[in-house]
Amino acid sequence: MLLRQSLRQGMAVSYLPLMFERFPHLSEVMVQPSIEAAIDASVDSLDSSSSMDLVAQTKALIAEHQLLLTILPTVPKPIDSPERHALNFFMKSTDSQLSPYLRVAMMVALSALVLQMATDGVQWYKYNEATAATKTAIAAQYQSWFADEPLSTRTKLQVQLQPKLRSDSQAPASHMAALSRISPLIKQSSLHAQSLVMQPSALSFTLIAPDRGSLDKFTSTLVAQGLNAKLAQVNSNEQGQFSGQVTVNVVENNIVESSDMANNAAAS
Questions:
Q1: 138 partner at 20 to 30 Å CA-CA among 39, 55, 94, 120?
Q2: Which residues contact 193 (CB under 8 A, 6 or more apart)?
Q3: Residues in CB range of 128: below 8 A, 6 or more apart
Q4: In Å, how far from its chain's centre is CA 96?
Q5: Where are the alpha helices (H) located in the chain, listed in sequence order?
Q6: Which of 49-53, 136-140, 258-262 has the lowest mean pLDDT?
Q7: Residue 230 contacts residue 207 (beta carbons within 8 Å)
Q8: How far is CA 55 from CA 70, 87, 118, in A?
Q9: CA angle 59, 64, 70 (to 5 degrees)
């Protein structure tokens, strides 16, 4: 039961006689018909009799407290949205829904996560392919170098190659000494060095010259400088130039230089 004290004040009443005792200054009670009484016309006899008994008890209670009873003729109008009304004190079940901004942000984050996972998957796949191709190329190169010894996959490649590498520290020094003597001669001539092959006991140059005589002259110059040089594989191209391979024996040059130094020391 709802009790309205003024236009802006009201309350819910569970026991009407208690309210009459709490408000002794009441002089008049105005009763407003309910909305269901005006809307529902088809009510069975049992419900109508119970409603009449309730009205009779209310009238008797009001008369007992010597209050004036007035029944208002107006019927209250239904509220369009009773759940949003300010006087609605019932608990409403609220469904938790995400805001559109939060949903868009979650979709963008999920898309970025899926894209990152796809990118990582593609990179991992390409990395495995490159690793497999590298292992195959290493095995083929190792087999071409050492045909009688297979490559072990359980041992590191450095450990297997280190015992087979040349550890002669004198060879690079002798090669560099020969290069330091040959390079100025190439710069002073009209020749152009195309390639250099460094072998354990020799140096091979591929030189480009405008004519065959320049190659012979350069070889003679090296021999005059005390180098054991030989000219081979002389070819001509369409531009009229000649290419030749000059091989300098580094080991023999070191022996000759050592013997010369020993003779000079003995003579002195």
A1: 120
A2: 186, 205, 206, 207, 208
A3: none
A4: 33
A5: 16-22, 35-39, 45-64, 100-145, 157-161, 170-188, 212-224, 250-267
A6: 258-262
A7: no
A8: 13, 25, 75
A9: 40
Amino acid at 122: V
Q: Which two tokens stand for residue 62?
A: 């009001």
CB 13 within 8 A of CB 2: yes
Which helix (DSSP H) or strand (DSSP E) does residue 199 occupy?
none
Q: What tokens appear for 251 in the block?
A: 């080991």
Confirm if 3 and 13 have CB atoms less than 8 A apart.
yes
Report CA 134 to chain centroid distance, whole Å: 25
Q: By CB neighbour count within 10 A (0-12 exposed, 13-18 middle, 19+ buried), where does 198 fall?
A: middle
67: Cα separation from own chain's centroid: 82
**Can you tell me whether residue 244 is helix, strand or coil?**
strand
Q: Rounded CA gap, 172 and 185, in Å?
A: 20
Type of residue at 144: S
Q: Measuring CA to CA, which residue among 243, 259, 200, 191 is closest to residue 222?
A: 191
pLDDT tier for residue 169 given thresholds of 50, 70 and 90: very low
- For Cα atoms 64, 66, 70, give the angle at the middle one, nearest 5 degrees: 105
* Of 132, 138, 162, 165, residue with least CA distance to 150: 138
Whole-angstrom Cα distance, residue 217 to residue 66? 147
pLDDT in tens, 180-231: 888 888 888 888 888 888 877 888 888 888 888 888 888 898 888 888 888 8
3-state secondary structure of 100: helix
